[in-house]
Amino acid sequence: MTWSSLDTWIVLTAMAAAVSCAIPGVFLMLRRQSMLGDAMSHTALPGIV
Q1: Tens digit of each residue's pLDDT (9 = 90 or more) over 3-48
Q2: How far is 9 from 2, CA to CA, in rounded Å?
Q3: What is the distance between the alpha carbons of residues 40 and 30, in angstroms, rounded to a whole number?
Q4: DSSP-assigned letters across all residues of 1-49
């Protein structure tokens, strides 16, 4: 298996999506609004895809 430039873009996009969902998710979890965080993550996923 070889690593191509397309694989690099896929990994970078996945990392950006993970970070952009994790930061508000942790904030909402600390404020005890976990269901709102869950709703945001399920709404953002089709937008990213």
Answers
A1: 898 999 999 999 998 888 788 778 877 777 777 767 777 777 676 6
A2: 14
A3: 15
A4: ----HHHHHHHHHHHHHHHHHHHHHHHHHHTT-HHHHHHHHHHHHHHH-
Return d(Cα 37, Cα 44) in angstroms, integer. 10
Residue 48, C-beta contacts closer than 8 angstroms, at least 6 positions apart: 17
CA distance 16 to 24: 13
pTM over 0.70: no
Q: What is the CA radius of gyration of the chain?
A: 14
In 3D space, the residue among 48, 49, 46, 40 whose CA is nearest the CA of residue 22 turns out to be 40
